[in-house]
Automatic annotation (TrEMBL):
<keyword id="KW-0547">Nucleotide-binding</keyword>
<comment type="function">
    <text>Catalyzes the ATP dependent decarboxylation of (R)-5-diphosphomevalonate to form isopentenyl diphosphate (IPP). Functions in the mevalonate (MVA) pathway leading to isopentenyl diphosphate (IPP), a key precursor for the biosynthesis of isoprenoids and sterol synthesis.</text>
</comment>
<keyword id="KW-1207">Sterol metabolism</keyword>
<comment type="pathway">
    <text>Steroid biosynthesis; cholesterol biosynthesis.</text>
</comment>
<dbReference type="InterPro" id="IPR036554">
    <property type="entry name" value="GHMP_kinase_C_sf"/>
</dbReference>
<keyword id="KW-0456">Lyase</keyword>
<keyword id="KW-0752">Steroid biosynthesis</keyword>
<feature type="domain" description="Diphosphomevalonate decarboxylase-like N-terminal">
    <location>
        <begin position="8"/>
        <end position="171"/>
    </location>
</feature>
<keyword id="KW-0443">Lipid metabolism</keyword>
<dbReference type="Pfam" id="PF22700">
    <property type="entry name" value="MVD-like_N"/>
</dbReference>
<dbReference type="GO" id="GO:0019287">
    <property type="term" value="P:isopentenyl diphosphate biosynthetic process, mevalonate pathway"/>
</dbReference>
<dbReference type="InterPro" id="IPR014721">
    <property type="entry name" value="Ribsml_uS5_D2-typ_fold_subgr"/>
</dbReference>
<dbReference type="InterPro" id="IPR053859">
    <property type="entry name" value="MVD-like_N"/>
</dbReference>
<dbReference type="InterPro" id="IPR041431">
    <property type="entry name" value="Mvd1_C"/>
</dbReference>
<keyword id="KW-0153">Cholesterol metabolism</keyword>
<dbReference type="Pfam" id="PF18376">
    <property type="entry name" value="MDD_C"/>
</dbReference>
<keyword id="KW-0444">Lipid biosynthesis</keyword>
């Protein structure tokens, strides 16, 4: 028997992926850019065992056995086996037993599928003797698009690619975390309930019905992506922050432009947006940026010297009655201070 345990980090997109040109192969309409968080607070953990005596593939998620017929999961296994066949044919028939867990809310718009599939594929690759990160990114993409970015630390770009077979649609590291050490992320958990409309079906509805999405992809993103890469390169926080907030806002505008509309942010999310703009206005400088994925939870980007002051203001605005996860039930975000993953 061979057995291995891996952990994989969450990534937060600063330029969002929203919309596929190929739903089967999970090929996106646009490039996206993300920041990978340290695994200290939020991560997925997966243990994979392979053994010639295992009769079938089996999988447990957060302690509950799951069907292995899930098409995306099955696709990841198939893609790994295809690569194993090419390299180490002898173990290609062995079955996998897989145990995965997230230490943060699953499906609440906190990139759980990204960390989960990155971890699954990385562990499958490791136990099967596949070492190229390129392969891990390509296969993780088949589990969940955003997962292809979680295989790198620091600042990451997922190249949409142009090939119909998707062989050039994978993530690359733009810069490691050490490039810009003071960047911090505050994760504000507003709710841990499962989102009403998952990203996969939400983005499909947007592709079908939103004219704003087409405009975004064709007219807005090419320059925005180039500007974002430049801003990260020269460590220009104000530009990085403005682009991040504008892109989050446009993504949620696309969701509202989808018909019927998709609403991910709630009242607390909007109160956080107002706070960030007021804070920056009073500082006469852009010191904080927000971004929201397919859920109400916020991620704030802040430079390390400003973290304490921002947290103090958040505590004042949303006074916690006790430091427990139950706070967000009362509309008070729970703040986690996270560094970037290398
Ligand atoms: C809003 O990667 O979850 O978080 O590829 O269908 O699994 P699928 O979608 P998924 O979408 C993530 C959307 C997002 C933006 C982002 O992470 O870029």
């Amino acid at each position: 028997m061979k057995i291995i345990t891996c952990i994989a980090p969450v990534n937060i997109a600063t330029i969002k992926y929203w919309g596929k040109r190929d739903t089967e192969l999970i090929l996106p309409l646009n490039d996206s850019i993300s920041v990978t968080l340290s695994t200290d607070q939020m991560h997925s953990k997966t243990t994979v065992a392979i053994d010639p005596d295992f009769k079938s593939d089996r999988m447990w998620l957060n302690g509950k056995e799951q069907s292995v017929d899930n098409p995306r999961f099955a696709q990841c296994l198939k893609e790994i086996r295809r690569r194993v066949q090419d390299k180490h044919g002898d173990i290609a028939d062995w079955k996998f037993h897989i145990c995965s867990e997230n230490n943060f809310p699953t499906a609440a718009g906190l990139a759980s599928s990204a960390a989960g599939y990155a971890c699954l594929v990385y562990a499958l690759a490791k136990v099967s003797g596949i070492s190229e990160v390129r392969d891990v990114s390509l296969v993780a993409r088949r589990g969940s698009g955003s997962a292809c970015r979680s295989v790198w630390g620091g600042f990451v770009r997922w190249q949409a690619g142009v090939r119909p077979d998707g062989a050039d649609s994978l993530a690359e590291q733009l810069y490691p975390a050490e490039h810009w050490p003071p960047v911090r992320v505050l994760v504000l958990v507003v709710s841990d309930s499962k989102k009403k409309i998952g990203s996969t079906s939400g983005m499909q509805e947007s592709v079908k019905t939103s004219k704003l999405l087409a405009h975004r992809v064709e007219r807005v993103l090419p320059d925005r992506i180039a500007n974002m890469i430049e801003a990260i390169g020269r460590k220009d926080f104000a530009t990085f922050a403005d682009l991040t907030m504008q892109d989050s806002n446009q993504f949620h505008a696309v969701c509202l432009d989808t018909y019927p509309p998709i609403v991910y942010m709630n009242e607390v999310s909007h109160a956080i947006v107002d706070f960030v703009h007021k804070y920056n206005q009073l500082a006469n400088q852009v010191k904080v940026a927000y971004t929201f994925d397919a859920g109400p939870n916020a991620c704030l980007f802040v430079l390390e010297p400003d973290v304490a002051d921002v947290i103090a203001h958040l505590r004042h605005l949303f006074p916690p009655t006790e430091h427990s996860a139950a706070n967000y039930v009362r509309g008070i975000p729970v703040v986690q201070h996270v560094q970037l993953h290398k």
